[in-house]
Design brief:
mainly beta; five-stranded antiparallel β-sheet; about 0% helix; F-box-assoc_dom_typ1; F-box-assoc_interact_dom
Length: about 240
C-alpha cells in the first residue's frame, strides 16, 4: 500500500534531508497504525548548513492523513541511518542519533508521541569507528557494537560486543552478554531464536554465527554488498486498513 504524499513543502530557498528516523507500528491506545518520519530542513546553500530545523510528521492510517508533531521547543539529536538499527520494541521506536558528540538511541513512544534519549553502554563509546545495530533477544533490547567494513581491525584488541538491557529504560542495566572475535562483515542483520546471529558479509554472503557454539556458517544466499536486510515477521489479528473506497 502506498501512502499519500506529505502536504509539507519546503519554502523557496530551503532544502530537506532524510537521514534516518522512519518507523511504522500499531498504537493500541487509539487502535490505529502510525507511520512516523523525521527530517531536517535547512537553508539551501553550497556550504554546510550552520543551523537546521527538525520536522516530525505522523501519518494516521485510520483517518488517512498526515500531521505535524509539535516538538514544543524540544531539540532532537541528529538522527542518522545505520543498517538494521531502526527497531520497534515495547511500543517504542529506536533510532541511532548523535547528541553533544555522543552516540545515543533516540526513542519515540508510539502512543504518547514523546521523544527521549537513551544512553548507550558506557564502554561502547570507548573507541572510534564503531558501528551499531539494534535488535531484540530474549525480549531484551539488544545493542550490537561492531567495527564497520572500512575500519582497520586489530584481531587481538578488537571485538564485536553484544549488550542487552535487562530493565528497559534503565541505563545501569546494560549488560555485556557476548564478546565475539571480529568478522569481515558489512553489518549485523538480526538475532533469530535468541542465539543465531545473522550477518551480511563484505562479499555479499548471508552468514550465521551461533552464539552458543561459536560456529560460523555461510548460508546459500548471495546478494550485493550493503543490500541485505531482515524483517522479523510477527502474526497479528489486527489488519492494516486499506486506503480509499
Amino acid at each position: 500500500m502506498l501512502l499519500p504524499p506529505s502536504p509539507f513543502v519546503c519554502q523557496k530557498g530551503f532544502n530537506r534531508n532524510f537521514l534516518g528516523g522512519v518507523g511504522f507500528g500499531f498504537d493500541p491506545i487509539v487502535n490505529d497504525y502510525k507511520f512516523i518520519r523525521i527530517s531536517e530542513v535547512f537553508l539551501d546553500s553550497d556550504w554546510c548548513p550552520e543551523e537546521t530545523v527538525q520536522k516530525v510528521e505522523v501519518y494516521d492510517m485510520f483517518i488517512d492523513s498526515w500531521r505535524d508533531l509539535n516538538l514544543i521547543d524540544q531539540q532532537l539529536p541528529s538522527v542518522h541511518s545505520f543498517p538494521c538499527f531502526e527497531k520497534l520494541h515495547r511500543g517504542t521506536f529506536h533510532w541511532y542519533a548523535i547528541s553533544d558528540l555522543m552516540d545515543v538511541i533516540l526513542c519515540f513512544d508510539i502512543s504518547t508521541e514523546i521523544f527521549r534519549n537513551m544512553k548507550m553502554p558506557d564502554s561502547s563509546n570507548d573507541f572510534y569507528e564503531m558501528s551499531y545495530s539494534v535488535t531484540v533477544m530474549n525480549e531484551f533490547l539488544t545493542l550490537i557494537c561492531y567495527h564497520g567494513p572500512d575500519s582497520e581491525i586489530d584481531p587481538i584488541r578488537d571485538t564485536m560486543d553484544i549488550w542487552i538491557m535487562i530493565e528497559y529504560g534503565v541505563h545501569d542495566s546494560w549488560t555485556k552478554k557476548y564478546i565475539i572475535k571480529p568478522l569481515p562483515i558489512e553489518y549485523p542483520l538480526t538475532i533469530l531464536r535468541d542465539y543465531l546471529l545473522l550477518l551480511h558479509s563484505k562479499s555479499g554472503l548471508l552468514i550465521s554465527y551461533n552464539l552458543n557454539s561459536n560456529e560460523v556458517r555461510e548460508l546459500d544466499f548471495l546478494a550485493y554488498p550493503k543490500s541485505l536486510s531482515v524483517i522479523a515477521y510477527q502474526e497479528s489479528l489486527i489488519s492494516i486498513p486499506k486506503r480509499g473506497p
